[in-house]
Design brief:
There is one protein chain. Helix content is about 35%, strand content about 20%. The strands form five sheets. It has a nine-stranded mixed β-sheet. It has a seven-stranded mixed β-sheet with strand order 16-22-19-18-17-20-21. The radius of gyration is 34 Å and the shape is elongated.
């Protein structure tokens, strides 16, 4: 629960709260003994499980006294797990001020008592007055402790009754994602799941640290407006001293000096604007609107601006958009929802050692059905989503990553239950290709971008089968392995000699590989390895339509295009292709240029497919 807070507090819904018997609603920085490195915290138990910086714990008249190995580290790690309510904080500030005043009175009385002793020693003091002052001192100390405890109980009781201070309260799925410790988390997957609210609140987690800097991205500045409006409603109530400036670029600055920036990254080259910058927290709203290059470049900008900050990334998304395929591959396909996946990064050092660092990521799904507040405030929104066209409805209402608005080949089906009977599915189990079937090889060149080779078999009725593939990509989406044409040709020859010996394979490729204006053509390089192609027809729209024709099912549930399930890159890439924003009939080639180009060339070229 997030409530009005001082600039020194954190916003945290961590599970550690459940492990603490009673939360200390006092500002623990006011109870630090600089000399002895003592922390005094009331009613806070099981502290050794929170931080290893604690040396010893003992009960005193003022609560729990903690002796630390490292006061600063203990203080930080304790603050990371204590949420402070401003209402109670103000009450307890009054309590502490009264305690201080009471202590000052006791000190004054002690001084007076000492003075009285001196007078008594000189025969100037009545012994009755001495004992009266001593008794008053004891009673005063008892009154201090009673008052402190009474005020504390009253503060807790009133805080429980007063709910009008609540600015924003996370719902169940938002709590779940706020508890995650992974380096990367994708949250959402459907409309109305509370994604944007979560993201702007998550950015506040470390604003008590002066050097903390966060940044949240949308693709365009117009799309940032909704996020900024949310912050204008929430941030000032939680942090009254925070300031917002729209110009030159949207930025929140907090009393501590911490900053939260809101920025757009419309084009891939815009990522270079952040070169040399460091951000402790990086958030992407609607991640599927971004390319992989935009996202992965910001890993290099995700670093600490100073000691004591947590460095991590968060993103929200719905299915669809130019980044659908890589987001699905990175977060959705790697593990079941809400299941973390860890990877080991190995780094070679200059002296020959290898450093191994674990990185992890997770997908936490959320939909409108998890947003009880939205359903209560606007129950008709559910009907609005249900009225959408089928693909968009399934994506936004149910978070279906296999169906979304803007999908080019929304008819593509991968159903393992029909791999054997080959009905109502495009993906099937591999089988031995009969000797009398023709085999074709379709090729699209790439160097910095992936190259792609696909082998297709054609049966006697003209149905095509994608039986094997070679995709020249790194582990990063749409990034090529930078093989020369000769190396690519040698690999193609190796595959064909191994799997298709004594078979005549017909090659088809984009006419551009015969361009020899800058030296040896790509086609010539392949011919030197004994690999030959004929120029295919690279008309974009007719080629795409040929793929639609072939993917269509007849009345028996049989298509004219099948994909062997070992062609994983085709299965991963082609279903995620989206339409070009500037040409409603063409494909946005950023999502999978090589696959779509050579597939269209093959379908439109050899063999041609007539419309049924």
């Amino acid at each position: 629960m997030i409530k009005s807070q001082t600039s020194r507090t954190l916003i945290d819904a961590d599970k550690i709260i459940k492990e603490i018997a009673k939360i200390a609603f006092i500002d623990i920085t006011d109870f630090i003994d600089q000399k002895d490195q003592l922390l005094h915290i009331k009613d806070l138990k099981e502290l050794k499980g929170i931080t290893s910086a604690i040396k010893s714990i003992k009960q005193t008249g003022f609560g729990i006294e903690i002796q630390t190995h490292n006061k600063d580290r203990a203080l930080k790690e304790l603050l990371d797990h204590v949420a402070i309510d401003k209402n109670e904080h103000e009450r307890l500030q009054i309590e502490k001020e009264r305690i201080i005043l009471d202590r000052e009175r006791i000190t004054l009385q002690r001084q007076q008592l000492e003075l009285s002793k001196d007078k008594a020693g000189r025969g100037e003091y009545d012994q009755r007055e001495y004992w009266n002052n001593r008794n008053a001192r004891s009673n005063e100390r008892g009154r201090v402790m009673v008052n402190a405890e009474d005020i504390r109980k009253e503060a807790k009781e009133n805080a429980a009754k007063e709910s009008h201070n609540v600015i924003w309260e996370p719902q169940e799925k938002q709590i779940q994602v706020m508890q995650r410790k992974e380096y990367e988390v994708l949250f959402g997957g459907a409309a109305g799941g509370g994604k944007s609210d979560y993201l702007v609140i998550e950015a506040l987690r470390q604003v008590h640290i002066p050097h903390y800097k966060a940044i949240i991205f949308r693709r365009t500045y117009d799309e940032l407006n909704e996020l900024i409006e949310k912050t204008l409603k929430l941030y000032p109530k939680a942090f009254p001293n925070a300031t917002f400036r729209m110009t030159p670029k949207p930025t929140w600055t907090f009393r501590s000096g911490a900053k939260i920036l809101f920025r757009a990254m419309q084009y891939e080259q815009d990522r270079k604007k952040y070169q040399g910058q460091a951000y402790d927290f990086i958030g992407f709203d609607e991640l599927t609107h971004f390319t992989y290059l935009m996202y992965n470049y910001m890993w290099s900008r995700n670093r600490a601006n100073g000691p004591g900050t947590r460095v991590y990334m968060r993103a929200t998304a719905n299915p669809g958009g130019i980044g659908h395929s890589w987001v699905k591959s990175r977060f959705i396909d790697i593990a079941p929802a809400a299941t973390p996946k860890s990877f080991i990064q190995e780094i070679d050092t200059p002296d020959g050692d290898v450093i191994k660092i674990e990185r992890n990521r997770i997908f936490i799904p959320s939909s409108i059905f998890d947003n009880k507040e939205l359903l209560k405030n606007d129950p008709n929104y559910l009907a609005s989503l249900a009225m959408l066209p089928t693909a968009e409805r399934n994506a936004l209402l149910y978070g279906d990553w296999l169906s979304f608005s803007g999908q080019v080949f929304d008819e593509f089906i991968d159903d393992p239950q029909h791999y054997k009977d080959r009905t109502n599915t495009h993906v099937i189990a591999p089988f031995k290709i009969p000797d009398h079937w023709k085999i074709f090889r379709a090729y699209d060149f790439g160097y910095a971008k992936p190259f792609s080779v696909g082998w297709w078999a054609v049966d006697t009725r003209g149905c095509i089968y994608r039986i094997r593939e070679l995709y020249g990509s790194t582990d990063e989406p749409n990034v090529g392995v930078k093989w020369t044409p000769h190396k690519q040709a040698a690999k193609v020859r190796e595959i064909e000699e191994k799997y298709y010996p004594d078979r005549n394979i017909f090659g088809v490729a984009d006419p551009s590989i015969w361009d020899a204006s800058r030296g040896e053509s790509i086609a010539a390089a392949f011919e030197s390895e004994g690999i030959y192609f004929d120029p295919g027809d690279n008309k974009r729209i007719p080629g795409k339509m040929q793929m639609h024709y072939r993917m269509a099912f007849d009345e028996r549930g049989l298509p004219r295009m099948y994909i062997f399930n070992n062609c994983r890159d085709f299965i991963r890439t082609v279903p995620g292709l989206v339409y070009d924003q500037h040409d409603a009939e063409d494909v946005d080639t950023d999502g999978g240029r090589s696959y779509i180009r050579r597939s269209k060339i093959f379908c439109y070229g050899k063999p041609n497919c007539t419309t049924r």
